[in-house]
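queue> pop job 88
queue> type: inverse folding (structure -> sequence)
queue> payload:
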């Protein structure tokens, strides 16, 4: 029997999203395949600095908003 690890739920752009407990913001971005793209991340109402993506661990029911930057001219 294969044992699966429990999942936790967060709100991602207002929608429920499941991922492994103790995932970081960087882990989430990797799962969403948006690494290296021009994005802004807000966690529970606070902007997350790009240099902190790997060190911030998500908790159940955290509210994460990811916004893609679009250039213009």
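queue> result:
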């Amino acid at each position: 029997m294969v044992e699966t690890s429990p999942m936790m739920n967060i709100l991602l752009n207002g929608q429920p999203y499941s991922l492994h407990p103790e995932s970081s913001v960087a882990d989430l971005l990797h799962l969403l395949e948006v690494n290296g793209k021009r994005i802004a991340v807000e966690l529970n109402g606070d902007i997350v600095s790009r240099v902190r993506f790997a060190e911030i661990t998500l908790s159940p029911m955290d509210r994460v908003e990811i916004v893609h930057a679009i250039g213009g001219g």
